[in-house]
């Protein structure tokens, strides 16, 4: 049994749904067969292999909260590019900004007037005064960590078990049998990453204090909620404790809002009054155009300036050539001013609450030992009892075969959710009809599994 379901039922569901999926997508299958020859592993980016379907469908177009494949199927999209399109596909103001900028140059390593506006917007919305633009959340985290190490003159960082902050090497650590190890599965990693990365469980303030008490940790990097394993919410008082302990031991606090920006206007940080020293946001910040931002307090900025003054001039190890380009400025300006609005967040929150209660009702109706959790517009069902308290529990809560079977079954019924973590996002474009369809589809699958 896995998560209350027999292996036989899971295997059966997976096989039947895989067959249905393949039979319905001859054009995607043929297109992939024609197009794969010169892509490593048959896809332009190997994550596309990690979807649970027998092969990925080829997209014709996506708009709002719908995505259409070349076989003519239109799905309600709750994956939304795994958060990159959290505010819907091609939101009209962003599409317009892109069109306008398209004729004014796409990259020139100089600011535009949009950039001037953007700086003000970032500081008003997120509460931190000094900003930089990068292209991915991975890079923003990398650069922010470099600043943290430079200004504290400490080499270590601390992460929580189960974390994910992009392809940032030094965060790729896990706890196994009580010991820190390199995250299993890393390719080509020959360093022992645990030498400079301490790791403790989320929600464990005692372990955090003992790890920080050596006063050699430059920075704690964390999401406010762990969203990259099965979702783990902070215990009451955890964030206060985290902030107090990092201050006590001279460690900076980096809050990575890349997923928790779903929480509401200004992200979890603003909604819950967190006070980070460094702040990172990627993915949806430019409405789907690759861009990220990272901000810091005046204090960190002043210490950074001091560090710059004391260092030999040369390459800082930060920045990439196409970062802070005018297309990003235009798309971010449009997103921050017209998409990340209180009204849109209110719509998303209402829809996500509806989705959460519908899924919870289906779980209860079919007496499954599962639960559903939510951070603003971000909802996730977990095929294990909850709530979860840390990364170790989250890892055990994963049921990959069962989740894959459910995800393909949902696609065959017209709804796309995120692979890897059963995540469902409600965008400003998502309708109650789409939400109710997802609930009905989930309920139908749950019934089959539970029968
Ligand atoms: N931070 C968090 C919290 C993330 O979830 C992710 C990606 N899932 C990243 C950073 C990295 O984003 P990107 O892949 O766009 O660099």
From TrEMBL:
Similarity annotation: Belongs to the class-III pyridoxal-phosphate-dependent aminotransferase family.
Higher taxonomy: Bacteria, Pseudomonadati, Pseudomonadota, Alphaproteobacteria, Hyphomicrobiales
Keyword Protein biosynthesis recorded: no
Gene3D superfamilies named in the record: Aspartate Aminotransferase, domain 1 (3.90.1150.10), Type I PLP-dependent aspartate aminotransferase-like (Major domain) (3.40.640.10)
Keyword ATP-binding attributed: no
Species per Swiss-Prot/TrEMBL record: Mesorhizobium denitrificans
Protein name: Aspartate aminotransferase family protein
A molecular-function term among this protein's GO annotations: transaminase activity
Requisite cofactors: pyridoxal 5'-phosphate
PANTHER family named among the record's database cross-references: GLUTAMATE-1-SEMIALDEHYDE 2,1-AMINOMUTASE, GLUTAMATE-1-SEMIALDEHYDE 2,1-AMINOMUTASE 1, CHLOROPLASTIC-RELATED
UniProt keyword annotations, A-Z: Aminotransferase, Pyridoxal phosphate, Transferase
First and last residue of the signal peptide: none
């Amino acid at each position: 049994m896995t998560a209350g379901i027999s292996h036989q039922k899971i295997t059966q569901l997976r096989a039947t749904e895989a067959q249905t999926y393949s039979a319905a997508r001859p054009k995607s299958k043929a297109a992939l067969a024609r197009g794969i020859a010169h892509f490593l592993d048959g896809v332009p980016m190997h994550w596309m292999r990690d979807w649970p379907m027998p092969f990925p469908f080829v997209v014709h177009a996506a708009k709002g909260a719908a995505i259409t494949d070349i076989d003519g199927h239109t799905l309600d999209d709750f994956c939304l590019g795994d958060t990159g399109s959290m505010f819907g596909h091609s939101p009209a103001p962003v599409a317009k900004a892109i069109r306008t900028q398209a004729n004014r140059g796409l990259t020139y390593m100089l600011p535009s007037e949009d950039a001037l506006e953007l700086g003000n917007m970032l500081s008003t919305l997120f509460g931190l005064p000094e900003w930089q633009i990068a292209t991915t959340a991975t890079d923003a985290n990398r650069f922010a960590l470099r600043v943290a190490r430079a200004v504290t003159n400490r080499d270590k960082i601390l992460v929580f078990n189960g974390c994910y902050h992009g392809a940032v090497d030094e965060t790729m650590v896990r706890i196994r049998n009580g010991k820190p190890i390199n995250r299993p599965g890393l390719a080509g990693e020959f360093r022992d990453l645990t030498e400079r990365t301490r790791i403790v469980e989320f929600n464990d303030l005692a372990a955090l204090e003992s790890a920080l008490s050596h006063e050699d940790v430059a920075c704690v990097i964390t999401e406010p909620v762990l969203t990259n394993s099965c979702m783990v919410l902070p215990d009451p008082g955890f964030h206060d404790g985290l902030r107090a302990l990092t201050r006590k031991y001279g460690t900076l606090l980096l809050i990575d809002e890349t997923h928790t920006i779903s929480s509401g206007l200004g992200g979890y940080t603003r909604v819950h009054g967190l006070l980070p020293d460094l702040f990172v946001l990627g993915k949806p910040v430019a409405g789907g155009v690759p861009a990220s931002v990272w901000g810091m307090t005046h204090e960190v900025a002043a210490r950074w300036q001091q560090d710059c003054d004391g260092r030999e001039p040369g390459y800082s190890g930060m920045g990439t050539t196409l970062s802070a380009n005018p297309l990003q400025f235009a798309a971010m300006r449009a997103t921050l001013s017209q998409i990340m609005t209180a009204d849109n967040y209110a719509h998303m929150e209402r829809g996500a609450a509806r989705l959460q209660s519908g899924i919870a009702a289906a779980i209860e109706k079919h007496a499954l030992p599962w639960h559903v959790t939510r951070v603003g517009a971000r909802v996730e069902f977990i095929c294990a009892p909850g709530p979860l308290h840390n990364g170790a529990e989250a890892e055990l809560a994963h049921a990959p075969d069962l989740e894959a079977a459910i995800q393909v079954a949902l696609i065959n019924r017209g709804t796309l959710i995120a692979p890897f973590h059963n995540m469902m996002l409600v965008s400003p474009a998502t309708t109650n009809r789409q939400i109710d369809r997802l609930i009905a589809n989930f309920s139908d699958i749950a019934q089959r599994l539970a029968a």
